[in-house]
Amino acid sequence: MARRLLLLRHGQTEFNATRRMQGHFDTELSQTGWQQAQAAAEMLVGQPIVKIIASDLRRAKDTAQVIGDQLNLPVSLDSRLRETDLGDWQGKTHEEVDSAFPGARARWRFDATWAPPNAETRQEVAARAFTVVEDLLQEVEQWEGNTVLIVAHGGTISALTSALLGFADSKHPLFSNLGNTQLAQIVGRDVPEGYPVHGNKAVQWYVEGWNIDRVL
């Protein structure tokens, strides 16, 4: 039986609008972000969602709560779904980072094992977010044939998607540029015992859609 996983990026913040790097900074939704959250909530009406879980940072938490209110579902929070800790880059614009660390942003985008000063790697982000899905597989008994919604951050969703597929570190850049309140749609299917899958449960994950604005 298939388990659908929807990964939704939070609504826009002023940091997003001004190309400023957020990381663990606890920024709020902009007016546009609140509107995007409401539109996402309305889009998800009628989907067989049995669980909503979100990053505990406000931009994700508030986006998830708008959706939860619309769908009459509670929202669980998990700090393992936070955005990448960007260390010394947090709060800086892209231009400021490029000026202070020439060429570093390109390396960061393409090397999942490299981190900015005092930050974490995408590899580390993938590892912590992956454990959330492992826990959900054990805890959400009604997931089979239904949907779980995770509301998180662009970097986290990219890293988690790569981890679920079992991608090598060099393949992580294949999933990028997820827009605000856009979706990654993934499905997990049980596989025969002994089949080589990534993780500790016999579930193979497949991508059905990336950077989409509605459920396929």
UniProtKB/TrEMBL annotation:
GO terms for cellular component: cytoplasm. The keyword Nucleotidyltransferase does not apply. Signal peptide: none annotated. GO terms for molecular function: phosphatase activity. It holds the Pfam family His_Phos_1. SMART domains: PGAM (SM00855). Keywords: Hydrolase. PROSITE patterns: PG_MUTASE. InterPro entries: His_Pase_superF_clade-1, His_PPase_superfam, PG/BPGM_mutase_AS, PGM_Phosphatase. Its EC number is 3.1.3.-. It is an enzyme of class 3 (hydrolase). Transmembrane segments: none annotated. This is Glucosyl-3-phosphoglycerate phosphatase. It comes from Corynebacterium pelargi. The gene is gpgP.
